[in-house]
Design goal:
By secondary structure, the protein is an alpha+beta fold. The protein has a single domain, classed as 2-Layer Sandwich (HIT family, subunit A). It has two helices and five strands. The chain has a five-stranded antiparallel β-sheet with strand order 1-2-3-5-4. The longest helix is centred in the middle third of the chain and has 17 residues. It binds adenosine monophosphate (AMP). The site of adenosine monophosphate (AMP) has 11 residues, from loops.
């Protein structure tokens, strides 16, 4: 989508510290980390958030879920990590392109 920063990163038109990429997803470091390790895992397809998913996105979502632990391990999170997805104004979503935060590398506050 024109003007979407995560679409631009996925197309390598905007800079990012990329850790992992395949045909369907890209993972890069958050520019304002909220934990010692803070990654964003983003589908290359523009989907606004979880509420914007359609039935044809099922295999893409399964792919993301299966890749999250692998991407976390790539960044050294061997003993676990937190995954967060903000949806809509009620979830304080800032970037309206679906993404999964991976957080870890320190003692996270309990939820
Ligand atoms: P949210 O939409 O609330 O789940 O959060 C969006 C996240 O994207 C925030 O943690 C931002 O720091 C991060 N972010 C926004 N723009 C960029 C960018 N160009 N590169 C890396 N991270 C970004």
């Amino acid at each position: 989508m024109t003007g979407c920063i995560f679409c631009r990163i996925a197309r390598h038109e905007a800079p990012a510290n990329v850790l992992y990429e395949d045909e369907q997803i890209i993972a890069f470091r958050d520019r304002a980390p909220k934990a010692p390790v803070h990654l964003l895992v983003v589908p290359k397809k523009h989907i606004c958030n979880l509420a914007g998913l359609e039935s044809q996105d099922q295999s893409l979502i399964a792919h993301i879920m299966m890749k999250l632990p692998q991407i976390a391990r790539l960044s050294g999170l061997d003993d676990g990590f937190r995954t967060v997805t903000n949806t809509g104004p009620g979830g304080r979503q800032e970037v309206y392109h679906l993404h999964f935060h991976i957080l870890g590398g320190g003692k996270l506050p309990a939820m």
